[in-house]
Design a protein that fits this description.
This protein is of the alpha+beta class. The chain is built from 8 helices and 12 strands. Helices cover 30% and strands 34% of the residues. The longest helix has 21 residues.
Length: 267
């Protein structure tokens, strides 16, 4: 049977997700920094849990042989995850899993009717000394400027969802954007998935023709300088085959920490 926890009980799943940097989004939900839903086998002493940072991704951990998972996982996807995703205007769902054969087998079996696509993600941790050694190698691209910005942690489609609490609908996160000719070229920000002083970075250069020109590196450097000044610890996450993103990460002093499988379905 599926049980959905009330926010006051989210901490009941803490023990299942400790020890991995990839789970900062999980703890952002547990800490009530980001809207989420938590599903478990047992409310008081869960052995398996799925934590969904709504509008983003879900994470599962615990016992992959748990009877709850085998009997209820497909029901959870069909009856809860898909309808809720559609309410937010989403036609996809991504599930981050532990890097173990047991979990991969369980997920591929549980999602078999949806023909899931599997890829691998890597989380990078920030090496301050590496960053400082590289920092002076890059200058702000000519004709551009950088300014601090606050951005909503949720897209509008999620802010309108009935299961998103009011406290999250106006919540913002800090970041920096690079402007050239009065146009925003690139942005680097906390995506709101934060726990303690750690957070996940989002970085984007909007126009494909403007990529590979140093804008992402420049705006990322502004964010990292801000982190060093205020005691924040950023994490960089990207797919294993996203070579441009991985190159920017290394230019900014990030180093590979761990990789793990992610399953995506469309509906």
């Amino acid at each position: 049977m599926i049980h959905e926890l009330e926010p006051s009980d989210f901490s009941n799943v803490t023990h299942l997700f400790q020890g991995h940097k990839q789970y900062v989004p999980v703890f952002s939900v547990i800490d009530r920094n980001f809207p989420g839903r938590v599903f478990v086998d047992e409310k008081d002493s869960p052995d398996t849990a799925l934590v969904w940072a709504v509008s983003r991704w879900a994470y599962i951990d615990g016992d992959p042989t748990n009877p709850w998972f085998n009997s209820s996982f497909a029901e959870l996807i069909q009856d809860v995850i898909i309808p809720s995703s559609v309410q937010m205007g989403m036609n996809w769902f991504e599930l981050y899993t532990p890097d173990s054969l047991e979990w991969m087998t369980a997920i591929e079996t549980g999602l078999s009717s949806y023909k899931p696509e599997k890829h691998h993600e890597t989380v990078f941790t920030f090496d301050e000394q590496e960053y400082l050694a590289l920092r002076n190698a890059y200058t702000l691209p000519s004709g551009s400027r950088i300014e601090r910005v606050e951005t909503p942690i949720l897209p509008q489609r999620a802010r309108d969802a009935p299961f998103v609490a009011e406290e999250f609908k106006t919540r913002t996160s800090f970041g920096f954007r690079l402007i050239r000719d009065q146009k925003v070229i690139s942005i680097c920000r906390s995506n709101g998935l934060a726990s303690g002083n750690e957070f996940m970075i989002d970085v984007e250069t909007f126009d494909e023709k403007e990529r590979s020109k140093g804008y992402a590196t420049a705006v990322g450097r502004a964010l990292l300088d801000y982190c060093l000044e205020h005691g924040y610890i950023p994490l960089w996450e990207t797919t294993s085959d996203n070579i441009p993103s991985r190159k920017v990460a290394r230019r900014l002093g990030f180093v590979e920490h761990e990789s793990y499988p992610v399953y995506a379905i469309e509906f």
